[in-house]
Design a protein that fits this description.
Two copies of one chain form a homodimer.
Chain A (H helix, E strand, L loop, with lengths): L7 H14 L8 E2 L1 H8 L3 H14 L2 E4 L3 E4 L4 H25 L2 H15 L14 H15 L5 H18 L13 H13 L3 H22 L1 H5 L3
Antiparallel strand pairs in A: 1-3, 2-3
Helix pairs in contact in A: 1-3, 4-7, 4-9, 5-6, 5-8, 8-9
Chain A binds a DNA duplex (30 and 30 nucleotides) through α3.
Keywords (chains A, B): DNA-binding, Transcription, Transcription regulation
Pfam family, one (chains A, B): FCD
InterPro entries (chains A, B): GntR_C, TF_FadR/GntR_C, Tscrpt_reg_HTH_GntR, WH-like_DNA-bd_sf, WH_DNA-bd_sf
Chain lengths: ~230, ~230
DNA sequence: ATTTGGGACAATTTCGAAATTTAGTTGACC
DNA sequence: GGTCAACTAAATTTCGAAATTGTCCCAAAT
């Protein structure tokens, strides 16, 4: 008896979700059933169910009788998303600083250490962020908010962060203007969090989030991508 | 050729969602396929897809190989949900007051007027809120937040309000302590909103949301319902 | 030259049964 | 008398084809 605790639906959902968040499936791309069925080795019903769940998460868009597509990106949406993230992640981080215990502080330190010791750019393509760094970066920010006791607030913040992952593929690892230090920004956030300085921590988090969006908008790559 | 713009999936989803939000399907209840298929006149695949979407909305819970259930309610969850609603709806209302135009003010007045002219309790059962009032009450609160330009923030607030509908079935229309005036609370919120007094409006909104939760927790009906 | 209609093709949507798994019950054995 | 195993029954999960709908191309008419 093979150990198959997870249903085929769950694995298809997890894999589809991973393919979208990692950028292997790019915004605007059509998600055809025939192709996905063969690729994942399951029937259309399983794929439909997984896609429906992703629609509700905002990662996939469905047009009735027309199919499913990876949610498209756009400049205005990025602005809205960034505003929402700044305000809500600040709120949740404030809760975390107020409610988090020593165990949480340890987790923050640990996840930050893992992030620092990850290569920023991919070995094979120095123009793209490494998958390892993206994974640890996501973990680090999620851990920052883990001190907040309210699971509803944590869930909402995580949902917004997932949506933002759609844009990460287009982020440039190097700031060509030369005046950015991502690692330093993370370190400053950790410092303020451990000092329990809520105002300083939220301010630095907002600047960190805003900076990424500003550079992305200025690069003009979003407008180029949304034409698909 | 019959005009059927909506797929069977969409109608099943909408109807299931309505049945849950209106309390016809109560928290903890099992959602068996055979029953739903006959009731809605569709096959299992359609039901599965609709249920999967509702799972992602937090209205339905799924246990692999075991079926789907209406999300259960609990005291702790109600506390978390209320805290999240207070903080996020305040945030969105502040945006609405800052960004909303005259057209939005008109919508607020209109939806409030419709709410005032709806019967509070059901004609056949004076112990329960009327469906008409619940519908208009939901519309009123949604309209309040409609002035916020950011669709992401509006969506999050609406999502939290939907989750709170699971608890509305257990709300008592009459405050047996006798010191509550729901209609008055709504009027005060409208007044503060039209005066563009952000601090006062958000304060009154928070008190309005908190009051409902307090009465529900004090009544002890939630602990009785979650035992199912 | 543009538009309108028909028709073949491809894709999504829906169905109903087969395959798996879980829950409940009966029986045998310690 | 209690525990465990196997069997039965009911439910979920999965599949693959049928039905429906949208898309595209081409021909005919304005």
């Amino acid at each position: 008896m093979a150990i198959q605790a997870k249903t085929r639906n769950e694995v298809a959902f997890a894999r589809l979700r991973g393919d979208i968040l990692s950028g292997r499936l790019i915004p605007g791309q059509k998600l055809a059933f025939a192709e996905l069925c063969e690729s994942y080795g399951v029937s259309v019903g399983v794929i439909r169910e997984a896609l429906s769940r992703l629609v509700e998460q905002g990662l996939v868009h469905s047009a009735p009788q027309q199919g499913f597509f990876v949610t498209t990106i756009s400049g205005p949406d990025l602005v809205y998303l960034t505003q929402a993230r700044c305000e809500i992640e600040s709120l949740v981080l404030a809760h975390a600083i107020a409610e988090g215990n020593v165990e949480w502080e340890s987790l923050v330190l640990a996840s930050h250490h893992r992030l620092v010791n990850a290569p920023l750019v991919s070995p094979e393509d120095p123009e793209r962020l490494s998958e390892e760094w993206v994974e640890r970066h996501s973990d680090f920010h999620q851990t920052l908010l883990l001190g907040c006791e309210n699971p509803r607030l944590r869930g909402i913040a995580g949902q917004l962060r997932d949506s933002a992952e759609l844009y990460r593929r287009w982020s440039v690892p190097f700031d060509h203007e030369g005046d950015r230090d991502i690692a330093g920004e993370h370190a400053l956030i950790v410092e303020a969090v451990l000092k329990r300085d809520t105002a300083l921590a939220t301010q630095r988090l907002v600047e960190h989030i805003s900076k990424t969006t500003s550079l992305l908008l200025e690069s003009g790559v979003v407008e180029g991508a949304e034409k698909r």
